[in-house]
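Data availability (excerpt). The following record was deposited with the supplementary files.
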Amino acid sequence: MIFCISSGGALIKYAKKHKVPYLQVPSGMPPRAALPYMLVPLLFFLEKAGLVTGVKEELEETTILLEKISEENGPETLTRDNFAKTTATHIGDTAPVVYGSGFSAALPIELSSSLTKTANQRLNGVFPELDHNEIVGWEAGEQCRYFS
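Predicted structure:
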């Protein structure tokens, strides 16, 4: 079974021409903003195909959780009660670095990409490919600051 999810253009024209079921999502967004529009329909399609279950319930729970996190980390929440502000304060003038391995290998790449776009900082690595020279470079200690 073929199903098309697109923001328009040639792909939608192709789907219409060949009578392929499609969902047209809003266009003109950067990829990080378009992700929910691409992911949610895919999840419902997977459920319809019998590959996953409980999508609606999980999305409802996710929405509630994201609203709570958004409220807790909003601009009006005091720094001492706001994880996002506290983290930003601790980062200060340092360069945040995220490493990953296996299942989490995509995390450092995505977070690094977001940091590049929003803070003009970019450092990442994936184990085991993480180069020995990079690890040695951090041994100086002064530029490293860990917090929890």
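Summary of structural features: The first strand starts at residue 4 and ends at 6.
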